[in-house]
User: Fold this.
Amino acid sequence: MSALSEALKEAEKKLSEELVATPGHVRRVLFWCEKIAREEGADLEAVKLAAALHDIAVPEDRAMHYELGAKVALEALTKLGVSREVAEKAAHAIRAHSRYGGPDPETLEDKVLWDADCIDACGAIGVIRAVLRELQASRLREPKDIIPALEKIASLKAYTRAGREELERRRSFILKFIEELKRELAASGEQL
Assistant:
């Protein structure tokens, strides 16, 4: 079995009970990482491995999952026989992928993972994931409560050309969704 298959298997096992950082999220991020990496010329092996493991530590430490995840990934990839150079690139990308902390993306591989993760946070899928995230954090009681989270998603930036194109398409949907939500709430007399 390949290192990527093993990494995906481990991620699916660790994330099987998650509401937002699900195995489906990992597969979608992997899809976008592969697409963007090919278009941008990033290290495809490192990016795919980073995508597979980017949220591996969410169940242990949601707030610092990017930091712990980078350490876990480096150890796991080394045990799987991945070259030190590729394992370090993957771990670096994992450390820099989170919108909730960690360093800014620097390398092309960092930027590819960042963009792929942002793409899955935006659009129709992003609306659903935002609702789940806010429910999980007990911050959602009324429809208007989701607006700040959606506005934050709509402000995401991408680093690669390929990432920007898809993110912009999805941002357009989020902005229309917010506009419609506000219109519906205002029409029923709700204060925003």
In short: The domain at 3-187 is CATH 1.10.3210.10 (Hypothetical protein af1432).
